[in-house]
Amino acid sequence: MAKKQSNEKKQFNNPNVVGLRAEVLEQPITETLEQNYMPYAMSVIISRAIPEIDGFKPSHRKLLYTMYKMGLLTGARTKSANIVGQTMRLNPHGDAAIYDTMVRLSKGYDALLTPFVDSKGNFGKVYSRDMSYAASRYTEAKLAPICADIFGDIDKDTVEFNDNYDGSMKEPALLPTAFPNVLVSSNTGIAVGMASQICGFNLEEVCRATIEYLQDPECDIFMSMPAPDFSTGGEIVYDRAEMENIYNTGRGSFKVRSRWRHLPKENIIEIYEIPYTTTSEAIVDKVAELIKAGKIKEINDMRDETDLSGLKLAVDLKRGTDPEKLMQKLFKLTPLMDSFPCNFNILVAGNPRVMGVREILGEWTAWRIECVKRRVYFDLSRKKDKLHLLKGLAMILLDIDKAISIIRNTELESEVVPNLMMGFGIDKIQAEYVAEIKLRNINREYILKRTAEIDELERTIAELEETLKSRRKIKSIIISELKAIIKKYPAPRKTGIVYASEIEEYTEEDTVEDYPVSVFLSNEGYLKKVTPQSLRMSSEQKFKDGDALKMSFEATNRTELLVFTDRQQVYKTRLSDFDDTKASALGAYLPTKLSMDDGERVLEIICPGDYRKNLMLFFENGKVARLDLESYETKTNRKKLINAYSDKSPLAAVYMISEEIDMAAFASDGRAMVFNTTLLQLKTSRTTQGVAVMSLKKNSKLVSAAPLSETVIKNVSRYRVRSLPAAGALLKEDDRGETQMSLIDD
User: Fold this and answer.
1) Which domain, by its residues, includes 272?
2) Are the C-beta atoms of residues 144 and 155 closer than 8 Å to each other?
3) DSSP letter for each residue of 44-70
4) How many CB atoms lie within 10 A of CB 594?
5) Does the residue 403 lie in any domain?
6) CATH code, 135
7) DSSP symbol at 133
8) Phi and psi of 511, rounded to 5°?
9) In this predicted model, what pLDDT tens digit does every residue of 27-44 receive, in sequence order?
10) Can you give the pTM of this predicted structure?
11) Which residues are catalytic?
């Protein structure tokens, strides 16, 4: 009787597979990260995004090795679609991803200084965003000649081979590159939690630097390899300190700018090389945006005239335009000058490491030494095997007739080899070799020719064994190969070098009109910039109800301002950012104009000038901080400085000094004191409170301060103090009055 089949569905219970359980499972986040996230993250890091010491990612290596096995190193080109299809045996991805990899390695795409794919057809251009490459069925490719030095040793056990994704064939774990391709080929990769950005270097320069490093690990790499090199050309704005940091740490950035020429007859500028990090379309779009915004008025038109001869961006100039100054402006405001960020993150033995150039050369040379050792050992093993066979053949030479007799008189084929072994005292391998000799070769001439090689083989084996023992000889082999590469593949630099100290940079001040202005600030934070002409026509000030003038000063349209607020913040701006107005107008509301925080209030405004003065910060608790104004100077265009001063007590007054002077401080209880600024030492931290200057009574506070010369104090000796802190003295009637405090020191 047959068993009754169950209608129940088979139940699966695998906690590591999503979707096999109907209920919601609770799992600690640590387990989720360990089981799901970490395997994926490590796969991306190790098997996808980060290049290894041979300079290739797995996708590059699989493609090039497939082309090598297809015989495309010496053969004719074949359809790219054929290559893509064959590569899928090693790379389990779609054809689009594989073809995209081929494009980036091709000569036609111009992404690499030393391309590995000799392409024919439309492969696009790295400097164009919209210049798409043709489909794989329309293009052809083969390996470039330099790949002979990539695969030269691969069949001599120089590198490890691993199973492909389905175990059907083997693929190399690394390619035995005879030169440091990791530095020659520009590479970019984004992994999980890390990234890699490696700039390219000139092939000849890298080879010479490697030779010098092998001879002396402490050599000056800059002598042979002064700077990176890019396939798109351009000019590196060279800063030695910046470049040394990149060479030493593997991190940093440097600027690359376009190359251009001025054609006076046509009154146009031709840009024919651009930074590696941008595209021609991005440049044209940015220039068009600036023209539309009115920031560039010297250009009539800009167009992309790129053709088969190469990149060309044409800029039509207006009459009277200085091309040098215009290009300085364009370098500043457009991608015609761009930064290349460096992050030399490389996989070494499966571990990602950020290394400087010297460390990379050290790792590559160590790895290459092992490759050469393995190659020498492979050759040595083959020579020893051949010598072993020939020595067996030499034994046969002693009595050929005996060998023939043994073979002829042996009844069973399986006994031929054992009988030869016993008859001549040779081993099984030698006997097998003798037994396989063709009948026509069993003559004295043939055997003598073969055995004559024994002496030469013994000398060669001795040399190979000596080479294996000598690290110096291994290095000599690598050096000779590098010298051969320099001769075979001449590679002049494409990217020029200009020194940053020799370049005149564009500043916005160059285009800002400068003229005298009067500035007025109200208590509520309204600022007015009034020209002398307007002020002469009407000097009557207008304010909102309840508002009044807080301060006023003379300046110019280019003057920079530091605006101190009650939130320990300083805002940087220029008077040129404000529109000219009349004295009768309310002016610009600073909290809105400077994008201040809600409720933030303006306390003081100073004009720093060249930032070569000292800043006096007076706090309500009686303390004073003397700071170097340079601490507020920023090389970047930051508009807001946080933690600009101490938050321990409210700020009462701010003043700049260029020399030692007498200062007067006033308390809320009517006391005053006069002290010389020599009593205050310069502090280094902006957030310091400084030192106690005025000893305050309970419920009293410091309310104002000013240079003695700007006060109405007559009896100076009454209030002068010789040491700090001090309490000061009560103001006499004739020393009172409205003290006009000007916070501007011209």
Assistant:
1) 259-335
2) no
3) HIIIIIS-BTTS--HHHHHHHHHHHHT
4) 22
5) no
6) 3.90.199.10
7) P
8) -110, 0
9) 888 888 888 888 888 878
10) 0.70
11) 138
